Amino acid sequence: MPFTVASRPRRPPYNSPVPAPRLPVPILSAPTAAGKSALALHAARQAGSPVELVSADAFTVYRGLDIGTAKPGPADLAAVPHHLIDVVDVESEYDVARFTRDAEAAIADILARGHRPLVVGGTGFYLQALMHGLPLTPPADPAVREAVAAELAERGWEALLADIMARDPAEAERMQRNPRRIARATEVHRMTGRYPGAFGRSAPAFRYDLIAFTLEPDALARRQAGRIAAMLDAGWPAEARWLASRVAPDLQPRPTVWQALGYRDVLDLALGRRSREAVQDAVALATRQYTKRQLTFLRTQLGAALLGPADAGERLGACLTANR
Asked: Does 230 show up as a binding residue in the annotation?
């Protein structure tokens, strides 16, 4: 299949001892299509010592989701080592707990070899787990999970989110309109009477320095629209059709892989149900809405001061060249 990446080299298991770096590990984040990958690659090439990137993206972990996730291409992957790209098949679930374990292990491995780790990504709750630890919520109860799944199928995730909003607006904001997180928060509340945010968090393994940037809104919207058009030209509809052949898109709760931005709309184009113009407009609107949620999360949940790209690049360069 054209969307498999089995030819990419697999990394050995991470089992290096965790060193104690004097300086925090830098994180570079920005809204989708703002240019964070390009900025990270440029900074890595300019650094005086070897730098390796750790992806904090909820969907580039999936093998085969290449075009619609704007996954780094072969040249970029060859130029600078990347971690947590193409980690699982699309039939698998990949959650924040697994990401945190994998990312911390990758960072430890990079440091043990005397290289510099740089975390790059825009998935806010992944970054939150790295920086502040994982929520100490109780394990799932299968009976409660089944009941919530049935209610989700009957009422829809927006109704469950409205229930959370009525009880705890701050918790609802943390959900980022993510159906799987909404279902999990509902499960925890049914079991305990509390939402996940009330349980505290585990201690993070490392200290981090978050560098976040954005663009002027109109410029960012133009970049996003241009990238959507380019991805459609590059074969995104065929990739969405391939994904549907591997994972049914209408299961409840919705499989994690089908929460990737734009894929359901683009599948409609692939199946001839909507025009390219209608799909392109729908994906652009969803992207702008997602951008607002990303920026809100960066400011309110992660305490980020949003810089311009030039200032972010300068600060990142200083982080990567500072003496440990």
From this structure: no
